[in-house]
Amino acid sequence: xxVSLPENPIFCALDTPDLGxxxxxxxxxxxxxxxxxxxxxxxxxxxPDGLKAIVGTGIPVFADLKFHDIPNTVxxxxxAIAPLGPGILNVHAAGGHAMMQAAKEAAMERAGANAPxxxxxxxxxxxDRDDLEQQGIAASPSDQVRRLAALSQEAGLDGVVCSxxxxxxxRRDCGPxxxxxxxxxxxxxxxxxxxxRVMAPADAVSAGADVLVIGRPITKSEDPGAAAAEIAAxxxx
Length: 237
Description:
alpha/beta, TIM Barrel, eight-stranded parallel β-barrel, 8 strands
């Protein structure tokens, strides 16, 4: 058994290494988002204590740490992170079936009924076909995402991270219960920044996304709480 996702699909990416700012943002947007995401920049500055502090806000947390190593090492990393209380954690699907299976088993072993959802990272939303070709991957981003999502599901993971443009095909491939965590979400008028495969929040939810990861359109706003509330309202119209 694993934790369930909140009804509000918005997870705000706390794109800061500063714990005080992260906690201030969390307080400001609480009630307007379903969860918070912390990444490598934050974790490398603040470590496990920082993650525990964010979990302590009472808002579900996605630990976006993208583990990718041999199965034994990744399993050990998951055992270290799972008891800290994140609701979601992720590993790179490119690490292979054995690695992903080891990650899921480690989460269940260490956290039991409170085990986080373990999600496979498919193709980063900052990458397009040219980027994949430079890595020696002949497939289109969509085909590569489908391949890695199928592998993630076979390995027993709870879902994948994908761009909004793969939601439809993954719903058909993987079924309604496979969780789709979608970054690269940009409200109308927001800057695309370094993302290449993006979509508006309401469109992504309509397509079948379970979690929308939204960072700068909220965190760089003059009023993050109001920005988060506006996005949340757009999902119910």
